Amino acid sequence: MTIEKNREGYPTLLDKFAAFYSRYVYRRIRDCWNYPICSVPGKDVVLKERYTPDNGWTFKYTGKEVKCINLASYNYLGFAESTGPCAEFAIESIYKYGVSNGATRIQYGTCEMHKELESLLTEFLGVEDAITFGMGYATNSLNIPTLIGPGCLVISDEKNHASIIVGIRVTGAVIKVFKHNNVKHLEELLQENIISGQPNQPDGQYKPWRKIFIIVEGVYSMEGSVVRLPEIIALKKKYKAYLYLDEAHCIGAMGRHGKGVIDYFDCDPKDVDIQMGTFTKSFGSAGGYIAGSKDLISYLREHSYASCHAWAMPPPVAAQIIAVLKILMGRDGTEEGRKRIDALARNTRYFRRRLRQIGVIIHGNDDSPVVPILVYLYSKIVITVRTLIENKIVTVGVGYPATPLYEGRIRICLSAAHTKEQLDYALEVIEKVADEAGLKHSRRPRDPRPVEYDDI
């Protein structure tokens, strides 16, 4: 029998480092991740208490439930609720439409809820048309290949989400990656690739690109940074490129009207060729959307893999989003939407300023509700997550492979539902952990003046 070794073009079946990491690092600290919950992920969340009798191989439940302050969920506007007008409207839709349409959008799966949702969304975003899908991840991974193909150039931010990376990898396009939020590097790549044209042409002939796409996110979920949108719009106009903007973490959470990073910078929505977003964060629901011109959306309705093959968004999921949109647009006759947008902005600025006073290193924009605290080492991720849970506060510890090995962090996601008292308590505990674990590495000058919550 012939045993093949190092066959050209094939990776090894077993990555030794990954196996070592999974067995001897991750297993021993598994208790810091995948904690089961048994409540809605509102400003508070209820954990099912568990323990491991064998160093992380298995877990057993104690039967106790622990109520904690929730700093871990993407519930930016606090709409992840089991009661209230949104939940009631979703329940009503079940009695009328059921829990599923049992088909794809293009094959008898479209109902009145989808049409109403897309009409409201189009008006909310200030675009010509919009289309919705049942899964946020698939909104990127199944629609990008519909729009991009061989002969195209894609220039992608190095911190873009996995769903974008998966989508562009299967397009057959040439992919270039620019340094995170670095507009200068982006322009250099545009210039170089426009000059060189498509590669591998016979006799060194010059062949221009069919299309050039710049793909960025509005708020980056691991960095908390906000895209430099006005500068990127200027570049896309200068070099005649298309701009694809993923607003998953900023739709509802950024801007004076909660319309995302385009609203935040007061840009013209028509300057962004393809707007993408999800309903899993600010809307407390599921699914995603793409918005833009009539021609773009008509093309996607007919050719998108997500429209032709994926199941249509369930009616109660669409109903939840419709109810939230009406609140944000003031169609419910109240100021609730405005209050939530303002509350999130106030909580974000207050929390970030207080963290800077503590002296920990945080990433991101001052108005970003995603707040990563740099702890660097795995041991410090573990002590921070465990200590916070002991004090009834839940956060997200993020390490390899989601970040580089020595750039571990604690990611906090703020919500409009959090009260000042909850934030103050969390900050008090975080400061104690920072003292014990040695997390006060920031060299920024600390402002000794008290941060007044009501004046922000």
Large-scale geometry? globular
Mean pLDDT: 94
Write the H/E string, N to C: HEEHHHEHHEHEHEHEHEEHHHHEHEEEH
Quick one: biggest sheet?
7 strands, mixed
- CATH-assigned fold name of the largest domain: Aspartate Aminotransferase, domain 2
- Helix fraction, binned, reads 25-40%
How many domains in all?
3
Fourth CATH level, the homologous superfamily of the largest domain: Type I PLP-dependent aspartate aminotransferase-like (Major domain)
How is the largest sheet built, in terms of strand order? 3-9-8-7-6-4-5
Architecture of the largest domain in CATH?
3-Layer(aba) Sandwich
Distance between the termini: 74 Å
Q: Approximately how much beta-strand content do the residues carry?
A: 15-25%
Task: Work out the radius of gyration.
Answer: 23 Å
The CATH class label of the largest domain is Alpha Beta
Helices and strands in order:
Blueprint: H1 16-26, E1 44-51, E2 60-70, H2 85-97, H3 105-109, H4 112-125, E3 129-133, H5 136-141, H6 144-147, E4 153-157, H7 162-169, E5 174-178, H8 183-196, E6 212-217, H9 229-238, E7 242-246, H10 261-264, E8 274-278, E9 288-292, H11 294-303, H12 305-308, H13 315-328, H14 336-358, E10 370-376, H15 378-390, E11 393-394, E12 396-398, E13 408-413, H16 420-437
Parallel strand pairs: 2-11, 4-5, 4-6, 6-7, 7-8
Antiparallel strand pairs: 1-2, 3-9, 8-9, 10-13, 12-13
Helix pairs in contact: 2-13, 4-13, 14-16, 15-16
Domain Aminotransferase class I/classII large: 67-430
Protein name: serine C-palmitoyltransferase
Cofactor: pyridoxal 5'-phosphate
